[in-house]
Amino acid sequence: MLSDLGETPRLARDDGPFLDETCRLTDRLADAVVTAGFARHFVPTRWGGAAGGFTALLDAVSALAETCASTAWVAALYAAHGRLASYLPEEGRRELWGRSPDVRVAASVVPPQGSAVREGGGWRLGGRWTMASGVDHADWVLLASWAPDADDPSGGTREHRVFAVRRSDVKVFDTWRPVGMRGTGSNSVETDVLVPDHLTFTLRDLGRVQPHAARCHTVPYALVAALIFAAPVLGAAEGALRTWWERTAGSVRPDGGTVAGQPGPQQVLARSSVELQSARLLMERAAHAADHAPITPVLVAENQRNACAAVELCVSTADRLFRAGGSRALGEDDALQRAWRDITAARAHGTLNFDAAAAGYTKALLAARADAGHRTGPGAVR
To answer: Per the database record, which ranges form the Acyl-CoA dehydrogenase C-terminal domain (predicted)?
Structure first.
């Protein structure tokens, strides 16, 4: 854990099963996430935040996910949504963080939902949005909708616009009952509210460089989106391997021999450990690139590829460990089963689709090859 994030929130042994029942974080866990510094991690220093790095976030989120992937998922998104909110105009940032940088921001921004039309000095925002993780404990919610393009007087084009809405101005519906990641509380919300101009920005704005901004506020959204969603998956898989190995290493066969001494468990251990070490290296490479590397279209595509490939490795490990877990892993409250369900559910997120990442990577390489006069390839282009 690096210095800009505090101690990992402590989870009790029965937190996981309890979150599976309630399908949301407890108040204690939501408060602990804030105390640990996740909400302020990407908030600009101008407002008391850390303007932190992606490597630090990867380390903190994956460590937390070893015990509870749902808590880690919400923690990662509170951090990520604070980064998105930093693109609000100055007056909007002051409204969010004028009193404290420890503001919990939930979001439902992809795909755009609801409707937004010009009204007075702002926007009339209305409709329903799905899967707003952590919304029950949020202070603000970012909601996206297609809206008339402000730069097109004819009104013939539209843009993907994001609106910051107070949690008190949205109604939350208890709709989240998935197979895994149950504790994220990714419920649906409805609102009908007038949003002033200082509480809105466009997806296009995420590509602009903010003057004198920290590194975390100058990187493209596409460079880091998959990385943030993949971090809890990595930690959950590492936790699953630890759980399986602790059980296996301490197990004795009826003939007195050790279970770990058998070829089958040895194969499970070796293959799973090498997959997760590979996944972590890919994730660390992506986080380091987000923190330090010169940004190019190929780097953006490579980061997406690496994060999605890491998730594929984690899924492979989780499947193997669950199969090797025996009858004990069939229990609904078993830690190994819970990790398997969480990883399987998280993989379904659109940002972690390897097919899409592969297509984007190929497209970026072909474009770079054309620009370089056909003199480059995957090993040379960065």
So the answer is: 227-353
**Residue 327 buriedness (CB in 10 A; 0-12 / 13-18 / 19+):** exposed
Residue with tokens 């759980």: 243
CATH number belonging to domain 219-371: 1.20.140.10
Q: 3-state class of 346 per DSSP?
A: helix
Instruction: Report residue 202: phi and psi, to 5°.
Output: -110, 160
For the residues 103-131, what does the mean pLDDT come to?
96
**2, pLDDT greater than 60:** no
Domain range summary for the chain, segments of one domain joined by +? 15-97, 105-205, 219-371
The mean pLDDT of the chain is: 92
Instruction: Please tell me the CATH superfamily of domain 15-97, with its number.
Output: Acyl-CoA dehydrogenase/oxidase, N-terminal domain (1.10.540.10)
Amino acid at 54: F
Q: Please state, in angstroms and as integers, the Cα–Cα distance from residue 175 to each residue in 151, 180, 192, 372, following that order.
A: 37, 14, 19, 50
Distance in angstroms (rounded) separating the CA atoms of residues 75 and 60: 9
Helix axes 69-85, 27-35, angle to 10 degrees: 50
Identify the DSSP state of 138: -
